[in-house]
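Our consortium's second objective concerns turning raw sequence data into structural hypotheses that experimental partners can test. To show how far this objective has progressed, the report includes one record in full. It was chosen at random from the queue rather than selected for favorable results. The single chain below, 529 residues long, was entered without modification.
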Amino acid sequence: MKKKRAIPHTYVIIFTVVVFCALLTWLIPGGQYVKNEVVVNGVTTQQVQFNYVDSHPQSWQIFQALYKGFVKQSGIIIFILIIGGAFWVINSSKAIDAGIHSFLRWATRLERIGWVRKLGVGNIIIVLVMLIFSLFGAVFGMSEETIAFIIIIVPLAISMGYDSIVGVCMVYLAAHVGFAGAILNPFTIGIAQGVSGLPLFSGIEYRLFCWALVTTISIVFVLWYARKIKRHPEKSPMYEEDAFWREKSETQGEDIVYHTPLSTWISYGMAVVGMGIMAFFYPQTSLTVGNSSVAIPYLIPGLTFSFAVAAALAARKSSHFYVLTLLGYTIIYLIVGVMGYGWYIGEISALFLAMGLLSGIAMGDTGNMLSQKFIDGAKDILSAALVVGLAGGIIVILEDGKIIDTILFKLSEGMAGVGRIASLGAMYAIQTGLNMIITSGSAKAALTMPIMAPFSDLIGISRQTAVMAFQFEFTTMFAPTSGVLIGVLGMARIPFGKWFKWIWKFILFMVVLGFLLLIPTVTMKLNGF
């Protein structure tokens, strides 16, 4: 019998990519784009010019690149460790187990309703969760934040009879598809249109259609896969690895002792005081959606009051439900913080750290117990943090080797002298390929749009079309250089090789669909194009 070939370890895959990129620095000449200010008719504009520079071939630097990768990705690495530690404290409290157990009992009662039973509770949950996260990705560019949700949604997916891949798809895939089909994402559309000299968030009508289409297709794909796994769990590529989650799922709710110690009320008082202080300093909040801002007076004070009531009622029932309420309001504050105050992983890390500490106090943990649980959680997720740092070394090699700009320049040169559709295809292919190297949407917009926008004028393509070609970044969902993807897979305990093998056909389909959606922007008269 022929032995089945093992999928390489994630570390092996990443190191191989690092070595390959180092080899490219010996073959591709160094280059750099330089921005120059040019005065035309009294108006100062910026033009981007490419210049060849001395080559910087990388050899022994591949080992230094691994260190630099950790430095470059330090924010996400620390974020992952804090999330891992905080959620370990919550998991130790059995609060999430109690919540999932209660949810499943509620779902069982729902199945008594005819139309719900016909549609399937699991299907309804998948659709609703994916819609929410896709909308978050499309409106305010949710990306790194998905890491924190994996540890909640994956156990839920397992408990409903699915696998960890379905759990990741419900959060990460949905948010990234929304990110790619952005409606009002300020980190991609906002920057790209600003650099291109277009009215901010113009062309929203066609982008809204594209978002709805790619989101619907993604949901249908995940529902199809989930149905197959529900019927035949052993067909999941993660069946063996998911034993960890299944063992946790089988014991949910069995050994939980529902009670409310005095420490729960101490935690409750600390949380209310902390939120009250924030409410005092931030009585009015302006939520930003695209280029629109909506002022909501007393939003934070209102949340503080509602938490005080909801958490008190939950605490009377059990400390576990108090911790769940604390978790729910943490997520609400995350959304308000991102949309209202521009929070990023630093503020979000602080938010989840506070949640973890308050949860531990609520369960009666001492300082030493809290410290040990946090360390155990950080240890458990350390492998994911290491992978993120290693993947950062890929970008370091390409940047230090001075070849990213050369690759972009040579690719853009190849688009000259062909028809509009062919030029559009080449432009889209370049942006799609760059997603594997530059996984930050804002960084790619700042780098590529000063080149692509003027080039689109030369070949007779709308600048809005160039923005959309940049926008459809589906290939980041299997890019080993993506710290977010690696962090998500680490949290879900999915090897990169298995994820790649599972998702590549879907990504290929979405890439082709993206190109087909670009064609009407050239052949039809669309508003904003």
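The partners drew two points from this record. The chain has a mean pLDDT of 85. The radius of gyration is 24 Å. Both points have been shared with the crystallography group to help prioritize constructs.
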